[in-house]
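Example S7 (structure tokens).
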């Protein structure tokens, strides 16, 4: 689904190049600003054209004042740019989770709902997810995502669920299994790129997941979250759904 995944900041793929000794590069006193410009323009192009249909030359043309060499000075490949964008997205999610967990006045169940909502209710995030869905046809990319969905992502959910067990808002005896269900089913079974669905079928699927979670005392999906999840996930449906 996504900010809480659908992408995977793939191990070893986000790999910015270190500074070279070229004189023209040495004059760049603010490399982080250049990197941010590259990332912002690349994100716009990925959203508009899709990741696979965007070339480094497209990024050069859109920037207007940087050469291919200047871009490769900061990022070794187009793939490295995407990995940085995904890593930044994951950092946003992690910060939000940590901020929510530290907040008083909210139950852990409310915090978990807010975390899920942040993934399905953010147009910019959904645009980035949509731009790279075609990559999941590649077995290596799919395997890397599945590894992330089955390890790091459930661990992130588990921290909030454990807090819910302590405060009584998520009285489950199966915190690990709940985290795994949430991570895997939201990012695989609910994704229309894997299991095509119209709006009605998507709602049925989300309600089915809600019942599964309620059966193990994780009452995550209220009516408001169901409605927002349907809207967000349908934004990721192939054209024509």
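Recovered sequence:
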């Amino acid at each position: 689904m996504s900010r809480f995944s659908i992408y995977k900041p793939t191990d070893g793929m986000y790999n910015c190049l270190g500074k070279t000794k070229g004189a023209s590069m040495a004059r760049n006193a603010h490399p982080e600003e250049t990197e941010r410009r590259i990332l912002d323009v690349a994100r716009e192009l990925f959203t508009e054209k899709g990741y696979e249909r965007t070339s480094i030359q497209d990024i050069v043309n859109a920037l207007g004042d940087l050469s291919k060499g200047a871009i490769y000075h900061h990022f070794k490949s187009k793939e490295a740019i995407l990995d940085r964008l995904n890593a930044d997205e994951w950092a946003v999610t992690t910060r939000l989770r940590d901020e929510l967990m530290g907040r008083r006045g909210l139950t852990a169940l409310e915090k978990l709902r807010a975390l899920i909502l942040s993934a399905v209710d953010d147009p910019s995030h959904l645009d980035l997810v949509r731009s790279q869905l075609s990559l999941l046809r590649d077995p290596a990319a799919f395997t890397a995502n599945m590894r992330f969905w089955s390890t790091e992502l459930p661990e992130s959910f588990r921290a909030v669920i454990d807090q819910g067990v302590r405060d009584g808002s998520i009285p489950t005896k199966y915190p690990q299994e709940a985290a795994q269900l949430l991570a895997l089913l939201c990012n695989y079974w609910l994704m229309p790129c894997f299991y095509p669905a119209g709006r009605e079928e998507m709602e049925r699927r989300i309600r089915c997941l809600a019942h599964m979670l309620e059966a193990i005392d994780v009452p995550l999906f209220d009516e408001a979250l169901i409605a927002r999840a349907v809207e967000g996930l349908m934004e990721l449906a192939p054209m024509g759904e």
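Notes on this example. Confidence is low (pLDDT under 50) at residues 6-27.
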